[in-house]
Amino acid sequence: MSPRLAYRLALLAYPSAYRAARGDEILATLMDAHANAATADVREVISLVADGLRRRARGRPVKGVAAWRSGALLGAHLLALLNATVALLGLLLEQRLSGSAATRAIAATKA
After folding, report:
1. What is the end-to-end Cα distance of the chain in Å, rounded?
2. I need a labelling partner for 96 at 20 to 30 A (CA). Which of 34, 40, 60, 63 fits?
3. What is the CA radius of gyration of the chain?
4. What span, in angstroms and rounded, lies between the C-alpha atoms of 76 and 13?
5. What is the DSSP string of 14-81?
6. Which of 91, 83, 81 is closest to 54 using CA atoms?
């Protein structure tokens, strides 16, 4: 996945009004900071998502049933973030292990 796409997806965690006002500026800053990177910086992506969710949570006070709905939505976002993090770490681990001598030795014994 290209860094630009990864950062754009992470920006979806922000409220739409905030994204409309500052999304292009944030994306341009990230692309300038990581101009030569082949992949997105995982720490930056996690930071963007966490800040976006924090801004959503602080956006407007809610009471009653709306508070439960808002809490459930925040919980769903956090679970999605956890799922994406685990998937990304799995991919990174798989890439690291696929090039190791131990993995090649195990693959040779199975063949």
Report:
1. 32
2. 34
3. 19
4. 12
5. S-HHHHHHHHHHHHHHHHHHTTT-SS--HHHHHHHHHHHHHHHHHSS---THHHHHHHHHHHHHHHHH
6. 81
| pTM, two decimal places | 0.55
Residue with tokens 């009471």: 63
Longest Cα–Cα distance of the chain, Å, equals: 62
What φ, ψ does residue 98 adopt, rounded to 5°? -65, -25
Site of tokens 């049933």:
65
Helix (H, G, I), strand (E, B) or coil at 103: helix
Tokens 């439960």 belong to 68
